[in-house]
Structure formats: C-alpha cells, structure tokens
Amino acid sequence: MQTREMFNKIHKRYDLLNHLMSASRDVAWRKACCKILPKKENAVVLDLCGGTGDFAVAYKKTGKPKLCIVGDFADKMLNVAAKKDPDLKLAQMDATQIPLADNSVDVILNGFGMRNIPNLDLAFSEAFRVLKQGGYFATLEFFKPEKTISKLFYEKIAPLIIPFAGMMLSKRNAYRYLVLSILNFITPKQYASKARNAGFTLRCTKALDGGLAHIILLEKK
C-alpha cells in the first residue's frame, strides 16, 4: 500500500525519474528490447507494472499488437498512460494477482517494475499462467549492480543526485527508495534462476551500457 501511494504521488514526475536513473538512456533501452522480441501477429500484449505506458507505446510502434493492456497498481500512473495513447487498455492490477484468464496473453512486457514486487516467485507464477504457450516475457530492469560502471553509477553517483532530485521533485524519499531498490535487488543470474523455477525458458540476457540495465527475455514453451 505504501509503495502504491508513493508511485501515485510521483506519477507526474515518474518519467523524469526514469531518465535520471538511466542517464537518459531508458528510451533507447525500450526500443532495443522491442527489437529483440520475436514478432507475433495480432498479439495480445500486457505491459505489467506498466506505469505511465512508455513500454507499451514503444512496443506498439514495432509490434503492431491487436490489443495492448497496461496494468499497474497505481491508478494515477495509468492516468498518465491514457494521455499518451488513447488506444491503450488500462487496468489497475497487482502483478501477483493478474486479473486475466489462463493462456490469454502473447507477450508480457515489464520495464523497471519487477524489483518493486515483494513476492517475485508469485509474480513469475502469475506471468507464466496468463501467457500462451510460445509466449514471451520481456524484462527491462535495473538489477543489483555487478560491473564497474553500474556499481560506480548506482553506488556513488546516484546517491549524490538525491539532494538535487529531491529539491527539483519535492519527493526526495521516493527517489531514495528507487535507488535503494536497485542496490537491494537480485542479480540478473538470480532473476533468471527464479524464472526457470516458475517454468520459463531463458532465451537471452543482454547487458545495456556497461550493465546499467539488463534485458532478460523468457519464453513459455
């Protein structure tokens, strides 16, 4: 509940926060992830923890889905998504209790949302349940830094930005939470292991810009 309230409070500045935390590379990363995804005709797509809808909008430019659903537990974030593309279908939802039928989705997108879910195993189980056989689950995420560049950025540079971002956004605690959520998250290898335990097959893992972020592509075979 507290996390949802925090995201609702920062909904107008959330996109700016993503730009700050990614050194303004998040737009290019979403495009790269959409290119990696195998194309599916007339796909039903779920942007899980979709926030303001940027990932869904990026996918629509390349994938041309039949239906694109943005699901998020913060309703004010979804209000921002609605203004970006009126064709998006919006649904307030918990990633651990997805209100969709079994085997009903072709592609699941998740951009910078999985580390905010308390029970990852349950989220993976739900994602596996709603995906069709042959469906894909694409994660774009800030994982626990392992490489020199990512450690330098998230352990040294990002914490120094907090006072400036706090003054600019008037939400210093929210920015602090988002940085700590990265440092306290799991590694890409651990994430892939949890996904396999849920039944997924790992298609690829791709480090972006020295490991500042990673793409992890999973398949339900």
Please explain how this structure is put together:
With 221 residues, the protein is α/β, with parallel strands linked by helices. Helix content is 46%, strand content 22%. The protein contains nine helices and seven strands. It has a seven-stranded mixed β-sheet, sandwiched between helices. Helix 3 packs across helix 4 and helix 7 runs antiparallel to helix 8. The longest helix has 22 residues. It is globular. The mean pLDDT is 90.
Strands, helices and their partners?
Blueprint: H1 2-9, H2 14-21, H3 26-36, E1 44-48, H4 54-63, E2 67-72, H5 75-84, E3 89-92, E4 105-111, H6 120-130, E5 131-141, H7 148-169, H8 172-183, H9 188-197, E6 201-208, E7 213-219
Parallel strand pairs: 1-2, 1-4, 2-3, 4-5
Antiparallel strand pairs: 5-7, 6-7
Helix pairs in contact: 3-4, 7-8
**How many DSSP H or I helices?**
9
Strands ordered across the widest β-sheet: 3-2-1-4-5-7-6
Mean of the pLDDT scores? 90
Question: In angstroms, what separates the terminal alpha carbons?
Answer: 34 Å
Identify the overall geometry.
globular
Structural class comes to alpha/beta
Q: Indicate the proportion of strand residues.
A: 15-25%
Poorly predicted residue ranges: none
Helix-strand topology string: HHHEHEHEEHEHHHEE
Secondary structure tally: strands? 7
Largest beta-sheet details: 7 strands, mixed
The percent range for helix content is 40-55%
Radius of gyration: 16 Å
